[in-house]
Write a structure and sequence with these properties.
The protein has a three-stranded antiparallel sheet with strand order 1-3-2. The longest helix has 21 residues. Strand 2 and strand 3 form a beta hairpin. The chain is built from six helices and three strands. Helix 1 crosses helix 5, helix 2 crosses helix 5 and helix 3 crosses helix 4. 68% of the residues lie in helices and 9% in strands. By secondary structure, the protein is mainly alpha-helical. The model has no long low-confidence stretch (mean pLDDT 93). The protein has a single domain, classed as Winged helix-like DNA-binding domain superfamily/Winged helix DNA-binding domain (Arc Repressor Mutant, subunit A), CATH 1.10.10. InterPro entries: ArsR-like_HTH, HTH_MarR-typ, WH-like_DNA-bd_sf, WH_DNA-bd_sf.
Length: 139
Amino acid sequence: MQYYGHKVSQTARVFSKKLNGVLSPKGLYSSQWGILMCLHYRSTLTQVQISNYLNVEAPTITRTLTRLEEMGWVIRAEGEDKRERYVSLSPQAVEKFPEWLEAAVHLENAALRDISEEDLATFNRVLKKMNDNLNNVQA
């Protein structure tokens, strides 16, 4: 038996650990980076939208956003409904984003070294199919 789920999980852990290693000197961690990257590419989102997109529980997102707000990287604003909070990158985060992205891309390029475009295309198809399958599993 191959235990593909275990292999995916272990690879994700190694990648997160290495990403923390390149981002922490810049004052950031991989869990925070996921939120900042999401906001950079998707603009202003609600906390619920961020939670759903990243598949992270709402209390964890709230704690991470509180820390990011304290650090000056995100701005939160109330929506029309008092329970709804909109989140966007701060001007300081927009300015720092290229530096963070460069570090993340450098690590990703190192991880993908010597892997063909054809293999990467297959990898993307397999991951998408795995995600689709998992989203259809009744827990």
